[in-house]
What we know:
Urease, subunit C, domain 1; alpha/beta; 3 domains; 21% strand; five-stranded parallel β-sheet
Amino acid sequence: xxxxxxxxxxxxxxxxxxxxxxxxxxxxxxxxxxxxxxxxxxxxxxxxxxxxxxxxxxxxxxxxxxxxxxxxxxxxxxxxxxxxxxxxxxxxxxxxxxxxxxxxxxxxxxxxxxxxxxxxxxxxxxxxxxxxxxxxxxxxxxxxxxxxxxxxxxxxxxxxxxxxxxxxxxxxxxxxxxxxxxxxxxxxxxxxxxxxxxxxxxxxxxxxxxxxxxxxxxxxxxxxxxxxxxxxxxxxxxxxxxxxxxxxxxxxxxxxxxxxxxxxxxxxxxxxxxxxxxxxxxxxxxxxxxxxxxxxxxxxxxxxxxxxxxxxxxxxxxxxxxxxxxxxxxxxxxxxxxxxxxxxxxxxxxxxxxxxxxxxxxxxxxxxxxxxxxxxxxxxxxxxxxxxxxxxxxxxxxxxxxxxxxxxxxxxxxxxxxxxxxxxxxxxxxxxxxxxxxxxxxxxxxxxxxxxxxxxxxxxxxxxxxxxxxxxxxxxxxxxxxxxxxxxxxxxxxxxxxxxxxxxxxxxxxxxxxxxxxxxxxxxxxxxxxxxxxxxxxxxxx
Length: 542
């Protein structure tokens, strides 16, 4: 017999088109069967329906992560050396980082990799990346690779450089560069940009099938504990796609995922004898194709119209594009003509210009209604760009957690106070009618939906500075950006994202109503998560 449950006695924020607040919700199996008044739904409920008293707690649609790299957080927890500092962790300085790497090397057979992650040059005491020589001091018998928190650069020891065939004569690839001592020309070990890092920049680097599913389970449990039942892997290599595809059709993984293949895999991925049109497990959906226009602010590789406030690279004071305009336009035309939705990483305003130019060109050559091509991050979008996006039908997902984690650095180093006030401009997007979502880009910052909403609503840096009060949005807008708008952004609005009849019974139960202005938003926590009609997380009362 299919289970039926009736939830009541607490505000139920539906996130429907009218932002209705319901008195009760009836679920039958994995679907929502009724939304409305308690008495009406009791009459509709099948015999034996279980009643759940919310006891004044608030129910909302379960959160959807609209951009991240699931299950990378689990890989970090289980298999990599956490070198996070500042607001993310306790690795205060480079000697501490080296000691942690050395401890890992001591436990690792000679010749096998030691990988450190989440290193942040903007928060570590020395305000720089480690050097090749420093990593050599840890070990010359292990390949060592330290990946930056942004995932856009890293530092290698000599053994790693040798294994990669990188030496002083190696040319810098387009969209990347190899760090060199300005006096001697000797390689420093720094490798910047996806094109230069190659496989070492992939989130699944060094991850085999067994480790993949171990990391998957750890990440799933973390997400569910914060009310998230649908997530993304937004940069899937062919190897990563094969990992996802190894889940059998009838084995529920416990979370629903949208997987974004690398755009450069097309058309081979979807055409020909070895084409992959779908993933075997019904809970995994092949989604938009992913492209990159530029890099990261922390490394000053995000591509800007105007120079950085305090440039660290005299040769590239405005950052750098990851592709030439011609290459990006060709990729966008290809994917657009194949009928795919495109998500493109654009941190800087000049990076966004490259993508918008490419989309405009593709639409002129091949008009498509409701394509929902998406700017990912959009840290420095201006009014002229948002107006253009509205006209082109382009949407955006904002990395609003940057305001908390790096907002002070934006103001004093990356952009200066005036431009920093405009990062993640969700308020302006609303004014221009551009539909948007909010994300954490896990594992760059951890998936925490309520904290993310706080970042967009209050726009407060770690030191309490408010960046751009005119870019604030309401709590309701921040919740919609992680529920129904997140579903809409990947064409799933008919299946999830709001509490409406026929949709999946995915809910988060919160300890308080986040719309109640007498409450502190950050005091709001998920105490119960329901996925497909079943409770999959319940917060301990201890």
